[in-house]
Fold this protein.
Amino acid sequence: MLLSGCASAPPSPAPTLIVNRCATPTPCTLPASSPTTNGELNLQLERTEAAWAQCAAEVDAIILCHETSHEKAAPAARAFD
């Protein structure tokens, strides 16, 4: 009697490796300006502050990504010790 689990079958496909990587940081840039009035100067200050805030948010996201990926990798590395 031949059991159905003993029949030959094609090999399982190789697992697909998924590598989660953090974004690559890009240099922060500020908008060019040449204000000639107090109103333009105030607007430029607001734009500059917004640009720095956007850059800081991107840097914070990359740092958080690195921290979480290191935390996930640490237990796996210890398992092989």
